[in-house]
């Protein structure tokens, strides 16, 4: 196995503002901290995580620890999709993120999607340690591959695990596993959908955003999944052969989680294209701009 690439990030209050007090990474991981994102009045640290070579090579193991101190705000994103190159034999590419979020702090993990090439093997694990009043945004999403080139769900193995702990108690545990087997291929299970996404919103600062997303997703899906109506006569309706309902290009759902109502919310999305999910994220995460200084996934 390749030598682990290690990154370490710490955000603390310095003179009353969120500041990056530690930022370390070694090959093939690279961390970029722009000096300014958004207006100067915004108290948020941004970090861009990328890899030399433009992707993750078979057998790479990349690990990173992140600490966001009390009252601080930090956002971790990428400059483009995370490409996972073809596997060499049975080697698996791995990424591990371990993050702690302090009291009244906000951490937003808002990357672009993971794109696994044909035969790729990839395992990702993210573990978050939070406090009672921590605030957390997680976007975890992946595509079918280079589907515009005809490479759809051709990777061999994909696993993504997200754990959130409040103290020593598990608050949210989620795992996604896709593996091509002899019984049913990934492509057969996914039908026409090419993108799968999960969005987690947790904490008191994000309660209104949770409620708004749940309401908007409910309206969106009730409109898309409503059966078609006909203005014709009852006889005409009976004489027509039943039509197979078409699957909407984007489907979404929202579910609350946590010990008390409204502690956290998870949204799940499936779509036929990456552009549709980008649009979904831009719309529903735009309300984070006052906290982060910029709207996630904005094209401007």
Automatic annotation (TrEMBL):
The keyword Chaperone applies. Keywords: Chaperone. Pfam families: UreD (PF01774). It comes from the Eukaryota. Residues 225-249 are annotated as: Disordered. Belongs to the UreD family. This is Urease accessory protein D.
């Amino acid at each position: 196995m390749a030598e682990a690439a290690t990154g370490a990030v710490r955000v603390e209050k310095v003179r009353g503002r969120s500041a990056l007090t530690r930022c370390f990474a070694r090959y093939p991981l690279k961390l970029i901290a722009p000096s300014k994102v958004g207006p100067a009045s915004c108290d948020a640290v941004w970090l861009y995580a990328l890899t030399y070579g433009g992707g993750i090579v078979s057998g790479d193991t990349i690990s990173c620890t992140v600490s966001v101190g009390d009252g601080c705000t930090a956002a971790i994103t990428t400059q483009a999709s995370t490409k996972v190159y073809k596997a060499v034999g049975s080697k698996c590419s791995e990424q591990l993120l371990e993050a702690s979020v302090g009291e009244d702090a906000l951490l937003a993990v808002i990357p672009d999607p993971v794109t696994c090439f044909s035969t790729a093997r990839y395992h990702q694990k993210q573990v978050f340690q939070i406090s009672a009043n921590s605030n957390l945004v997680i976007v975890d999403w992946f595509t079918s591959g280079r589907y515009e080139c005809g490479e759809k769900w051709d990777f061999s193995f994909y696993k993504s695990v997200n754990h959130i702990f409040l103290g020593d108690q598990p608050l949210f545990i989620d795992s996604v596993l896709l593996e091509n087997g002899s019984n049913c291929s990934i492509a057969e299970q996914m039908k026409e959908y090419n993108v799968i996404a999960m969005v987690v919103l947790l904490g008191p600062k994000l309660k209104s955003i949770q409620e708004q997303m749940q309401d908007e997703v409910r309206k969106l899906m009730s409109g898309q999944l409503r059966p078609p109506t006909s203005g014709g006569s009852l006889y005409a309706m009976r004489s027509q052969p039943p039509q197979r309902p078409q699957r909407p290009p984007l489907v979404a759902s929202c579910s609350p989680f946590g010990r008390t109502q409204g502690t956290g919310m998870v949204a799940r999305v499936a779509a036929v294209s990456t552009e549709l999910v980008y649009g979904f994220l831009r719309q529903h995460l735009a309300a984070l701009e006052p906290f982060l200084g910029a709207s996630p996934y904005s094209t401007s």
